[in-house]
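Running log. JK asked me to keep both predictions on one page so they can be read side by side. First protein, sequence followed by its tokens:
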Amino acid sequence: MVKKLFFLIFIFTVYCKPSIAGDDALYELDADIINYSGNRVELEGNVAFQYDLAKISSHSAFLEQKTSGKEKKTARLGFCDDVTITMKDRGVIHCISGEADLSKNKISLQGEPVHYQKEVAVSCKDMVLRYDESHTITEIVATGHVFIEDPHQYRARGHQAIYNGEGLVTLLPKKNERCFIDTPYGVNIEAEEVIFDTLNHQILLKHTQGSIRLVKGLPTAIEADLAVWDETDGVLTLLGNAIVSHPLMASIKNTGLISFIWNDSDLQYMTVMGDSKITCFNKQGGVDYHLTVNGNIVLDHTLKQLYIEKMENQIQYSDKLGHVFGDTLIVDYKINNKEIEPSKVQLSNNVKLLSIASVSTSIDSFTPQYALADTMQYFPDTKVLHLSGQNGGRVLYYDKINNVQISAPKLLYSKNAKETVKGIGDVRFRFMEQELNEIKKRFKFDG
């Protein structure tokens, strides 16, 4: 039958006062068989060791005592086979074997694996727990084949995880390797270091690269100096030298921040702040157009729309037709065979166009054609620009080399097999003086 032995301070028994000054705690030991051998006690069958930090149960164990003055103190407790440790903070650990050094406030565990379960699950090859005199955990170090999992949020793996006792867990890889983490949202990231902020429910990933799923079945590569995963809101934010790229859609290079917001498992929004360079690709993988942005970008995947608003410098749209500048840009797109394809591009407010001879021509090179408008709409399928004025405004088009001047409420510009410019509405082929001055002022040239 189970024997229960209770040991109080100053009594020579299996249990004695723990090696913590001023602690008169009562220890309780249960076991089917107890064998005494000097300062060592061996226990077999349904072993349970209860004290302030935790309850330790196993199939077998040993307890070693040492004498300090007139007292016998429990110095070391070893346990093995079907070990369960129930912590006072409600965490539960399962392992094969372990040892508690009560004089050093330290518990060492071994197993394949050691498994810790609280809000998240942690498994590893070895684990060391350290605690203070109030029996509060100050550090947990898990080493070897470390896995950390919240089944609803993420799975992570690395070589070592360190809990600092204040809500932070740092996951580290082996030398010259990286940590890995994935989420149910289709996010797969590797990083040099992963920090779990358990109090604020955030995960910080340093020097990251990996992939996310913008559209079901369509992974998109990401990398950044730092990534932050907000578990509560389901938001991934990339910070510092971030790149988001897909070879058949587009790439974004950003020095501010890029955030992805999910609704269940589907991407709902992407927001971008700061300086960005966007390159959009065609179906053949070639460059379709470029965007240079100093401002805020919002991709609303529900509406299938990309919205950009400038902060300081104007938005620059560039393709083989030339360069177009504006204050706001809206791109409507569609999903075709799991690919994102733009259907309409619209630039608004203070729009200006510089037409160039070829794709390789620099914007700083000679540009023979200029246009001013309130709004530009571009349709990628037809590659035709629709320039228009608003509230009585007019489109101004100027071919400086051929001295062609067009002033009209609307203008169509195409450069497919041949270049065509067509004015619509009240068309004039000579500028008024203030119109020519406006062209010269906006494009900074004389003559």
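And the second, directly underneath as requested:
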Amino acid sequence: MTARDNQFMLLSLPSCGTDWVMSCLLGEKSPDYFREFFNPLANFQRYATLARAFGCELPQTIGLIARPVNMRREAVDAAYNITWRAENFLFTKENYSAFLVPYWQGKFQCVALYRPRNLTFPPNRLRVVNWYSCMFTSLNMNLASYPGMFQLAFHRQMVAVHTLADRCEAAHAFCFWRLLEDCEDFNIPVINYRSLLEAPNERRISMELLRLPGGFAQPGAETRVLETRTPIDRPVPGSPLGDHWRVSPDFFDRLREGLTAARAPERILNDLPERADALTPERR
């Protein structure tokens, strides 16, 4: 048995429900689980090593968030060997690894979690704006290293990016594009957050969790999903961020044009609103 056979990673983006999903899959306080092990800010004991290879919202590491793995493979490999292999954990999750899927799929049994933009935005915490704004900055910093169609799609929407909301929405779309495309290439299963939230019974939840490799979901996972899930109301009532979430009028049109021309995943395109001005003031 290789390390990959019994070590598991959940891949997603920030504020997409990974903490809840992992608690449902593993139960509370699993001793085999380290939350965001490779995030320098979440694993501060190993910050000096991790910050040379992995990105987070710390200014000195932002450029690494969206840097392609082929441009940092040696650093990533060194950090993995020094840190993870020195521990005995079996499970982790990563929110800043959309551009590291080709590497992680060789080290872990991976599963991706997709959450539509309208279940994440408008956010109810200022930190979420910071996370996605940092991701957008990293995308812009690394743009020249991406495939041509990705670059063209990013340039097309850039002319309509004027607000923090625009930056966050763009980062969500482009990072999930990279994540989902690599998951398809490497046959990594993708579970849908909305399906877990809306499944009418344990049987339907079980059907969604059947996508996971054996050993990831611990006994009782379906029951934990059903008993702990709560409806998501966006914007969160009383949240000042919801009242000030302003997407530029032509942003979604430009974003859709670029993503469509570049053949981005259908589930991202299908989750975009037709127009920003079709949103009510409370939802913009």
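Observation for JK regarding the second prediction: The beta strands are 8-11, 33-35, 91-94, 109-114, 190-192.
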